[in-house]
Amino acid sequence: MISEQSVKINSQEKIKLKKRLVIISDTHITRSGGAFNLHAFNVGIEKVNKIKNTSLYLNLGDITQMGTLLDYEYALEQFKKFDPVTKSPIMVLIGNHDAMNVGYLLFEEMIGRRHYAYEDDDIYILGIDSTKPDLPGGIIHHNIIKAVRAELEIPERENKFKVVCFHHQLIPIPNTGKERSAIDDSGDMLKMLLEAKADLVLNGHRHTSNLYTVSSSEKDLYIFNAGTFCCNKTRYRELFTYSIVDIEGSNLSFKVIPVFDPESKHEILREVNYYIPLQIEEKQKPIARFIQMSNSLVSEQKDGKISKFENAINSINKMNDIDLVVHAGNLTKNSYKEEFKAAKDTLDLLKHPYIVVPGFTDSKPLAWEYWKQNFGDFDPLYENEKIYFQGMNSTTLDSKEGFIGRKKLNNFIEKVLSLSHQKIFGVCCFHNLIPTPLSVWRTELIDSGDVLSQFARSQIDLVLNSSPSISFNVKIENTVFSNGGNLEGKYFDEVFIEIEIYRKGLVVLKEHNLKTGEAKVIGNYYLTILI
Ligand SMILES: [Fe+2]
Ligand SMILES: [Fe+2]
């Protein structure tokens, strides 16, 4: 086995002197109602005031509870207690609560700019507004994404450590209940941040702390969510916290410190790594090869022409050594009985094994019956001596919303753990766990935070989901998440994805374009493959 370590290249030492970011977030200050915990604020601010060697203080938004004049006035009064020993600047970002009730005007008048930059010789930190006026959800806007990219890609900043901060979560995080009020253009933002080689993203909003290592084919990006400092709306077992991020060289330390119990702080250490593609020797065969597709939308009207779906099946049948073909849902257009039968007949033309899970368009009334008749299992499993691949039905009857559920998730994770070090693990479901560029991030999977986190932290190698638009993939922790293989061909060319896993842990994703007949590599990653 070759570990990840052996293919990483030396990290770039960007920061000579240690930088310390101190984060308080989601203070929700108000004179009325039960949201604001004044005692937590008082105790916390006293502790934050004593922190030494801070480079920058950050409040990641939801300073106030209601965004009203009284709330802003009271918040400014409370912040007079903020008198740190290190007189460094503070970056205050606007949150959705601050933007309520025309609070965005008060924010500008009473706090300051909604976009903020801090820069020195080693570090560049940009804070931006992710709010929608008077609405809980978030948006960045394509012009801002473009502007942020331009800032990050300025040549003089190439060797600086680059941090981008905004209030709403960029990707779903665990222990927050229903996934909601995310950023509409998260996919575009995530893609830009990876391409522009940002090092760290700081978010608030969800009132619980979390850290993900999100990697492109070239380097790591850390996404840190701060918990709430003093809002009574806490989540699960995490109460009020503040965070300290220390950056030294390419080493990062994230400390989450409970306001009332500083002794039980937890610290996570990470390193920003760069990757170079490992050369695949000629004739080297992958240990596993998968095909991923979705949105075949089989309908009754065929006009005598070969459908895009049949075209895809014909192309796949010309390929050899495919272990498994995975169809991630939206098999039929209307969930009609005849459509399921036609889809089954087409899939049966495959000369390779396949599994298929339902998508939203396969979930209209009576679809369950037709699915059972044609495909049997809603959660199909494919297993051979080297692969354990679980299909999961994430749809709910006649609804765009879906969920996996704790029981199904736990059973699967338990199975994975029992077989660990023996097989390559894959899972597929219709709903996306990561946002895709060029589409609105719908977050229709209710429990996507828990599902994404469990998959990424449980040695699952491959997570395949449908794509609402283009193909897009990232690695989170040690798992490759791929949204792709959209056969719809409405706004984008119809494609399917080929995924190869090599013994040294290299994963190569190729997109086959059925319109042009071309294939191109759209991702390569290193996984710690334990078999
Ligand atoms: Fe909040
Ligand atoms: Fe918020």
What does this structure look like?
The longest helix has 13 residues, at 406-418. The protein has a twelve-stranded mixed sheet with strand order 5-6-9-10-12-11-26-27-25-24-21-20, with no helix packed on it. The chain has a six-stranded mixed sheet with strand order 4-3-2-13-14-15, with no helix packed on it. It has a six-stranded mixed sheet with strand order 19-18-17-28-29-30, with no helix packed on it. The chain is an alpha/beta fold. It is globular. Helix content is 19%, strand content 28%. It binds fe (ii) ion (2 copies). One fe (ii) ion binds at residues 62, 95-97, 167, 205.
List keywords for this structure.
30 strands, globular, disordered N terminus, single chain, about 525 residues, binds fe (ii) ion, 6-stranded mixed sheet, alpha/beta
Task: Present the secondary structure layout.
Elements: E1 8-9, E2 15-24, H1 38-49, E3 56-59, H2 69-78, E4 90-92, H3 103-110, E5 116-119, E6 123-127, E7 131-132, E8 135-138, H4 142-152, E9 161-165, H5 186-195, E10 200-203, E11 210-215, E12 220-225, E13 241-249, E14 251-258, E15 266-271, E16 274-275, E17 288-293, H6 308-317, E18 324-327, H7 337-347, E19 354-356, H8 367-375, E20 381-383, E21 387-391, E22 395-396, E23 399-402, H9 406-418, E24 424-429, H10 448-456, E25 462-465, E26 472-476, E27 479-483, E28 495-501, E29 506-513, E30 519-526
Parallel strand pairs: 2-3, 3-4, 6-9, 9-10, 10-12, 17-18, 18-19, 21-24, 24-25, 25-27
Antiparallel strand pairs: 1-16, 2-13, 5-6, 7-8, 11-12, 11-26, 13-14, 14-15, 17-28, 20-21, 22-23, 26-27, 28-29, 29-30
Helix pairs in contact: 2-3, 4-5, 7-8
Bound molecules: fe (ii) ion (2 copies).
